[in-house]
Amino acid sequence: ARRKADTTMIIQTIRMKSVTAEGMGTLSVFEAEHDVPFAIKRIYYIHNVPAGVQRGGHAHKKLRQLLWCPYGKILIKLDDGFEKAEVLLDSPDKGLIVESNMWRDMLWQQENSVLCVAADSFYDADDYIRDYEAFLRHVGAEDPAKE
Ligand code: T46
User: In the structure, which protein residues have their CB atom closer than 6 angstroms to any atom of ligand 1?
Assistant: First the structure.
């Protein structure tokens, strides 16, 4: 029951408030529930990743997250089952909200880029969908050829 792309996939990016002190660098900040549309229960970060590596390859049933890259360049590829979009995290003040039911891949484009994530829930392995066909069924976007 694949629907037509009559709705556009909404990709929400945020700009962190950034305060630069002349010759002394920049402080960037975001606040839970103010700048990010949820309370934060967990922070994790992914580092020591060689350039060219792709991680992810899953979706979450419920989890909502903010992704940002304080150092480096990481391409985030999103797929809601109907449409795909890409966002390049290439600036420490740029954040990407990834809602639930989004298939995500993260491609490291620069050695040692760091991916930081603020999540609205504790870790729950049962919240992951790691099979793409199962994801398409979950969001009601099965390939009609396979029905
Ligand atoms: C996501 C993207 C952006 C834990 O034990 N606790 C945790 O909080 C997390 C996030 C992971 N883990 C364990 C589970 C695996 O054994 O760490 C290992 C690596 O996790 P995974 O292969 O899922 O990593 P990525 O980079 O593919 O995905 C991660 C998050 O898991 C995922 O929620 O949205 O970053």
Answer: 42, 44, 46, 55-56, 65, 104, 106, 117, 123
pLDDT digits (tens, 9 = 90+) for 3-13: 656 667 889 99
Q: Whose CA is nearest to atom 35 of ligand 1?
A: 56
Q: Identify the residue with better confidence: 9 or 98.
A: 98
Q: How confident is the model at residue 8, as a pLDDT?
A: 77
CB 36 within 8 A of CB 30: yes
Instruction: List 69's β-bridge partners, or say none.
Output: none
99 CA from centroid of ligand 1 (Å): 16
C-alpha neighbours within 13 Å on the C-beta side of residue 143: 5
**DSSP 8-state symbol, 125:** G
Q: How far is the CA of 128 from the centre of ligand 1 (A)?
A: 10
Inter-residue contact 33 to 42 (CB < 8 Å): no
- Nearest-angstrom CA–CA distance, 53 and 111: 9
pLDDT in tens, 116-141: 999 999 999 999 999 999 999 999 99
Q: What is the pTM of this model?
A: 0.94
